[in-house]
Structures are given as structure tokens and as C-alpha cells.
Amino acid sequence: MGLLEGIATTRAIRRYRPDPIPDHILRDVMFAATRAPSGSNRQPFRFMVLTAGDKAMQAKRLIQDGARKIWGVKRENDQYDKGSGARQDSPKARMAGTMEHYVDHFDKVPALILPCLVRYRAAHPMEGASVYPAVQNLMLAARGLGYDGVITGFHGPVDAELKTLLGIPEEVFIACTVTLGKPIGSHGPVRRRPMPERIFGDTWDASPAWAEDPPGTRHTSAGPPKRTT
Predict the structure, then answer these.
(1) What global pTM score does this model have?
(2) Per-residue model confidence as pLDDT tens digits over 65-102
(3) What's residue 7's pLDDT?
(4) Would you say 182 and 216 are in contact if contact means Cβ atoms under 8 Å apart?
(5) Closest CA to 153 of 75, 23, 226, 63
(6) Which pLDDT band, with edges at 50, 70 and 90, does 126 fall under?
(7) How do the domains of the chain map onto residue ranges?
(8) Which terminal Cβ of the chain has fewer Cβ within 10 Å, N or C?
(9) Which distant-in-sequence residues (6+ apart) come within 8 Å of 26 by Cβ?
């Protein structure tokens, strides 16, 4: 698989086969993560890779509790059970079903990864630039090896408990959670809004002529409304 194909087909996957991920796959995925750039090449990212041990299971269940809280609020606030969500065959209802399954089975994901940032100064708006590129490297490498996953913030409500359980120092920032496994279903390609809505030239909201999607690209209606001018 070429790099551009990997980028175009790496999507959020929340359903996994129960098979454990072999150590050599985890090694290759995490090697790719450690090749990512960071500010001043300080390499402040660290990764907790949790699979089947006792602490791993405790961490999965802790984050599952956080996931239930976050998803419950989002489901109500975004009215997933109203409007088109009331129709079982609608995209909204399918997304709700996928999320419900993911939360209910979070404790069974083959691998749970906690990307962390070892802070060397006070929290800064740009600090994510030294950890999130490594997360994307991880996701692309997993895709290239036949695995997939999703990035979430479900650890938020249980951040303190996780740090206590896993011995993570207080000053370390848990940037997100990543779950990985062999996907159930297809990889992609991903669908996004058309390029002209996202790429501008020398004037804001004005797209250059070359900013066109390749032939056959499929788009999504999700996201901000289309421009009217």
C-alpha cells in the first residue's frame, strides 16, 4: 500500500475482531510513532501500550466508565435518538449504534494506547504539536499493517485514576486514547468535504483552481455548511 492510499483510507474504526495483536505488529506500529517530529526534537512523547495484563484490564474498564459518561451526554445533546436518528437505517442511527457498541465493548479492545506528553514547561497552546503527529504516525502504520483504530478523549473523566493506576507522573499530559485491532468491516476510503471548501489561495475563502478532488472522490454532508458565495 502506498502512503497516499493509506492516508485516504485510514478511518475511525470502532469494531474489532477479538484476536490479540502480535508483538511484532505492535513493535512496528510503535516504531513508526517514535519517528514523528517534535518541537526542538525534544521527543517528549511517551506511550502506554496496554493489552491483556491485569493493569491493562483495569485501565480499559476505567476508561469505559469515562466513555459511558461522555457518550451519554453527547447522545442526548446531539439528539441521536430524534429526527433522522429515530430511523434505524439512517446514518445518524447507524453512528449511534456503532458508538454504543464501541462503548459497551471498550474493555475488550485488543490494544489500548495512551499517548502522553512529558511537559517540560507550563501547558502551552502549541504543545500538542509535539505529540499528535506521533499519534497520526501510529494510525497510518497500523493501517499499513492491516489494523485500524480510533482516537478518543474518553480518558478525560478518569485521568487522575488512570495516573494512579499506571504510575503516570502528575505533570504528564495524557493526550488521548487510541484503540487498535483487526477491523470488522472495510477500511474506507474516508469521506470528507470537497477540497475547495478547505483550501484557500491568497484570499480567505477563495480556492485556487488546482484545489480539486481527484475524480471519483466521495464526499460527506457532515461538517459546516457549504459556502454560499
Answers:
(1) 0.89
(2) 999 999 999 999 988 888 888 888 888 888 899 999 99
(3) 86
(4) no
(5) 63
(6) very high
(7) 3-181, 191-229
(8) C
(9) 49, 51, 111
* Total count of residues recorded for the chain: 229
Q: C-alpha grid cell for residue 65?
A: 466508565
Strand partners, 180: 111, 149
Distance, CA of 218 to chain centre: 21
Instruction: Give the CA distances from residue 73 to residues 4, 78, 94, 162, in Å, rounded to whole numbers and listed in that order.
Output: 36, 8, 18, 21
Residue 24 identity = H
- Please determine, for residue 224, whether its predicted confidence score (pLDDT) is greater than 70: no
For 125, the grid coordinates are 497552546
- Looking at the domain 3-181, which fold is it? NADH Oxidase (3.40.109)
By DSSP bridging, strand 45-50 and strand 148-152 are unpaired
Digit-coded pLDDT (tens) for 139-181: 999 999 999 999 999 999 999 999 999 999 999 999 999 999 9
